[in-house]
Amino acid sequence: MKKILTFALAALMIISMTGCAGNDNTQKEQEKVVTSFFDNIKEYKLDELEKLGTDDYTDVTDGFKNFEDENVYGESFVKETENFVKKVFDKLIKEYKITFDDEEENTVLVKGKRLDEKSIDMTSAQENINELAQKYQEENMEELSKIYLEQGQEAMMKKIFDDLSKELYNPLYKELDNAKYTEFTFKFEMVEKDGKWLIDKISKEK
């Protein structure tokens, strides 16, 4: 569970775009890309996010693919994982403001408030998850043992993930709902390629 939240929060390092010290039309075009980026973050459109950057652009989408295998985790768990990740992305950014930097060409500072991962008590959530898993195991030991002996460990784990999919995420949803926001400032550098503005580099200012 912790890995899922960690991957989602890693997206905060690519949470904006840039502008440039150029004509108004250039700034408007770059601002469109910025707005599109934030829209895709909120709506969890990872494929669209990838289109907004160069080949050197940091991609955080691969981490989520670890939990997309229904053969390992079961259909129910995969669906609940996707729902949780969508919730995280929806809450990542509370507000933001784009300001163009007149001193650095094709650079902009984006300031706002983002989800503060430090305010999320993962230890407490993990303890609750462990308690749920242990209780489930004790109550279903006979059935799980039978599946393990007849179908193997993979089938047994799939059964566990399927049965506990919703309950396992309840502690994480609770922590997410109680999470606080913190201010951020990111500096983004843009490059024009084939007539399109793309993200090229992101650095954390605050």
* Helix content estimate: 40-55%
Rg over C-alpha atoms, rounded to the nearest angstrom: 21 Å
Largest pleated sheet: 4 strands, antiparallel
Number of helices: 8
Q: Low-confidence parts, pLDDT < 50 over ≥5 residues?
A: 1-22
Shape: elongated
Give the percentage of residues in beta strands. 15-25%
Number of distinct beta strands? 4
Q: Report mean pLDDT, rounded to a whole number.
A: 79
SS-derived structural category = alpha+beta
Q: Strands of the biggest beta sheet: in what spatial order?
A: 1-2-3-4
Order of helices and strands: HHHHHEEHHHEE
Alpha carbon gap, first and last residue: 27 Å
What does this structure look like?
The protein is α+β, with helices and mostly antiparallel strands and 206 residues long. It contains 8 helices and 4 strands, in the order H-H-H-H-H-E-E-H-H-H-E-E. It has helices spanning 2-10, 24-42, 46-50, 70-73, 75-91, 122-139, 141-151, 153-177, and strands spanning 93-100, 107-115, 181-193, 196-204. Mean pLDDT is 79; it is low at 1-22.
Write the layout of secondary structure elements.
Elements: H1 2-10, H2 24-42, H3 46-50, H4 70-73, H5 75-91, E1 93-100, E2 107-115, H6 122-139, H7 141-151, H8 153-177, E3 181-193, E4 196-204
Antiparallel strand pairs: 1-2, 2-3, 3-4
